[in-house]
Amino acid sequence: MLKSYLIQENGKILIHKLNASPVVLLWECNIVETNQRYLGPAPMNRAFTLIADSRDGAGKERLDILNSHDGAWGCHTQFNCTDVCPMGISPTRAIQKLKRKEVVHAFKNFF
After folding, report:
1. Which residues on neighbouring strands pair with residue 6, listed in sequence order?
2. How many domains does the chain have?
3. Phi, psi angle pair for 21, to nearest 5°
4. 3, part of any domain
5. pLDDT, tens digit (0-9, with 9 covering 90-100), for 52-83
6. Has residue 2 been placed in a domain?
């Protein structure tokens, strides 16, 4: 399960903030229509924010969870979620950055 709060390496929870996915982002994402297990843009944007935070000790765990067609690799980069995002952010860009982090993570685990 993808946790939407920061976890330090010692297991201590720093911030506990539930992440309710904006419904509008889900309805604009075409992938959600075809894959009901797809996480969607809002949760992955939140995951990227947490992974990018140096205080988070669960980044590797999050990357492992997102490394699937139901996660970051399911995004087809259509920017529909970015076009309708009420916060004016780009979940699509965050998902693409997650994909790059996935590749780096995979190479580090390979060697």
Report:
1. 15
2. 1
3. -70, 125
4. no
5. 999 989 999 999 999 999 999 999 999 999 99
6. no
